[in-house]
Specification:
heterodimer, A: 280 residues, mainly alpha, two-stranded antiparallel ribbon, 10 helices, 3% strand, globular, B: 338 residues, two-stranded antiparallel sheet, 4 strands
Chain lengths: 280, 338
């Protein structure tokens, strides 16, 4: 059960990356750093203005959206058509800058966010659930469905899928590729930021907290199949459950290692992802 | 074939100059800095074989580095003499590279990079959780060198000897890079970098050559890792297997110029020199300068410093009358074609 709850947050992180990497083909190695930024944004709101993280995720998300758009326009757009190699380097650089700027500003100390909700157990028959993780599960669920609907139903979402299918033809159909790409990059970053804000009550906060999440996000996207936003949502849940099963049987410290083994297995055995269709 | 005496001298003189540094510098802190610079120049050159010439962006080279460091500690702890265990560790890293290579070279682009990271991370987490590797507490590494006197009067400190070992390793790496840049397998690697499909179509065994480059690179990287581990006397998963080292190897090479001979050397001097200066000023946040350097290089100098200088140089040549420029027939032909 816990696995599903964490999985929803993984799904949120993964869907953000699926938008950026799967759909827009921008290899974002700074995803975890943006998540960390979301955590700090929400922590600052909590620490300075006593805003509950379950409300602070909204301003944090808006801030990350704007920040993501800015990063896209200034740093990603100029290298959009360069090789993966360059994109990986660029986003690794962005990640280093973000992590170290935060460290300069807030120091390397660990911070904890104590809110009542985290210690409130809810009983459902045999299960005991944590009220806080249930709430973040609900928020993540709403956002996941919202994003999925946005991509499928709206005109902008349609344009987005058109670019994903054929980046060369889309501009000929009158789609402003730069605008849409910037928008989806910003949306993806926003998702990571919100996930970070929702994770805040459950984790210790320190500048490099996001590092593992970059890799986890890629694991989720690969599990779900490239370019599939729904796949990423399922991939997130699968990862969450795998992790909690691993923690149960092998111990918490092996969870991340199992993530990577799973990742390598999927990549070498079924590169299109567990739920992905074979691409020509 | 005539012996390239001039080339040999232009290689030998800087190496001897580097080797003579301990004669003049006796400050242990400075020697420590020089050791790190030369060691990372060697590591950059080792990475260059895979990341530069073959164009495969590996961010998992710390795996080989770590196997080198941990191998040295573990073999020696079981009674193997240190100098033998260094090479055993490097051989183990090469074997590991063969396994990794078989899997990761089937993947392209970001998937390749991600899977190299995943392998390195699995190793790090394994080392952090197994008792054989000392877990998160780590292992102490054997000393490769002790202070010794020569000519009765001169004392060669441990750091100075480590420095000389790093210079030797860097020189070996440089020679291998040079051989790669001038040989058939090296040309094949560059062809793979430029266009893997076409390279395969003209009959190059792309997987085979990439794997060969990785094996050599892993061997050299492991030697560097063992030196590093021994110099710092103690290794923990977060030092000897940290992804930061992979990133550093890649950035040093990219900053100087990937796929060039001098690039990794220049990159190591610049990056480690800069980080040393910034470390004294900002303590923990010296990585910030790495980040900014990367962003600047990617935006303005995509071919690195050496590549950028080469462009400048060529442009300068073009403005002169063409008769003064010794053009190779290939370049002339390419120009005529345009």
């Amino acid at each position: 059960m816990d696995g599903l709850l964490t999985g929803a947050l993984y799904a949120l992180i993964g869907m953000g990356l699926a938008l950026i990497f799967g759909v827009m083909r921008i290899v974002n190695f700074a995803h975890g750093a943006f998540l960390m930024l979301g955590m700090y944004a929400s922590w600052v709101l909590f620490d300075r203005y006593q805003i509950n993280p379950y409300i602070a995720f909204i301003p944090a998300g808006i801030f990350l959206f704007a920040f993501g758009y800015l990063v896209y326009q200034s740093l990603i757009r100029p290298i959009r058509s360069r090789s993966d190699f360059m994109q990986i380097l660029m986003t690794t650089g962005i990640s280093l800058i973000l992590v170290d700027s935060v460290q300069l500003k807030f120091g390397a100390d660990y911070h904890q966010t104590n809110i009542e909700l985290v210690n409130t157990p809810l009983r459902f028959g045999a299960f005991t659930l944590n009220a806080a993780s249930l709430l973040s599960f609900a928020i993540a669920g709403v956002l996941i469905i919202g994003l999925q609907q946005f991509v499928v139903r709206t005109r902008t979402g349609q344009a987005l899928r058109a670019i994903a299918q054929n980046p060369a033809v889309a501009p000929l159909m009158g789609i402003n590729v730069t605008r849409i790409q910037g928008l989806s990059f910003a949306l993806g970053i926003m998702m990571a930021g919100i996930a970070g804000a929702l994770l805040l009550p459950a984790l210790y906060l320190f500048p490099s907290v996001g590092e593992d999440y970059t890799l986890k996000a890629f694991v989720v996207v690969v599990l779900g199949g490239m370019g599939s936003i729904e796949g990423a949502a399922i991939g997130g849940l699968v990862l969450g459950v795998t992790e909690s099963v691993t923690s149960l049987y092998l111990g918490n410290e092996w969870a991340l290692a199992v993530d990577f083994v799973l990742f390598l297995l999927v990549l070498s055995l079924k590169p299109s992802g567990i739920f992905g269709r074979q691409r020509a | 074939m005539k012996l390239p005496v001039r080339k040999f001298l232009t290689f030998l003189i800087p190496v001897i100059a580097c080797a003579l540094v301990p004669v003049f510098v006796h400050n242990d802190y400075l020697m420590q800095v020089f050791f790190r610079i030369i060691l990372f120049a060697a590591l950059g050159l080792a990475w260059n074989l895979v990341g530069g010439y073959a164009g495969q962006l590996s961010l998992g080279h710390v795996a080989f580095f770590g196997v080198g460091a941990y191998g040295l500690a573990m073999f020696t702890a079981r009674g193997v003499p240190v100098w033998i265990s260094i090479f055993l560790a490097a051989a183990a890293a090469t074997g590991f590279a063969a396994v990794i290579g078989l899997i990761v070279f089937r993947l392209r682009g970001p998937y390749f990079t991600l899977s190299t990271i995943a392998f390195a991370e699995v190793l790090r987490l394994g080392a952090a959780n197994l008792t054989a590797t000392g877990g998160a507490i780590g292992l102490s590494t054997p000393a490769l060198f002790r202070p010794r006197t020569f000519f009765e009067t001169h004392l060669l400190s441990t750091v100075q000897q480590f420095y000389l070992a790093a210079v030797t390793l860097a020189a070996v790496c440089f020679v291998i890079n040079y051989a790669t840049s001038k040989s058939r397998p090296g040309y094949y690697l560059m062809a793979i970098r430029e266009d893997e499909e076409t390279a395969a179509a003209v009959g190059i065994s792309t997987a085979g050559y990439k794997l060969r480059a990785l094996l050599i690179s892993a061997f050299l990287t492991a030697l560097g890792g063992a030196l590093y581990g021994s110099a710092f006397q103690y290794i923990v998963p977060d030092s000897a297997l940290s992804i930061e080292i992979s990133v550093q190897m890649a950035i040093i090479t990219m900053l100087g110029g990937a796929g060039t001979l001098l690039g990794p050397v220049i990159g190591a001097i610049l990056l480690l020199g800069a980080s040393e200066v910034f470390k004294n000023r900002f303590q923990e946040s010296h990585l910030l300068i790495y980040g900014i350097l990367i962003v600047v290089v990617v935006l303005f100098l995509p071919e690195g410093i050496v590549g950028g200088l080469r462009h400048l140089f060529r442009r300068g040549m073009k403005s002169k009358p063409p008769s003064s420029v010794a053009q190779s027939p290939a370049v002339a032909e390419a120009k005529g074609g345009n």
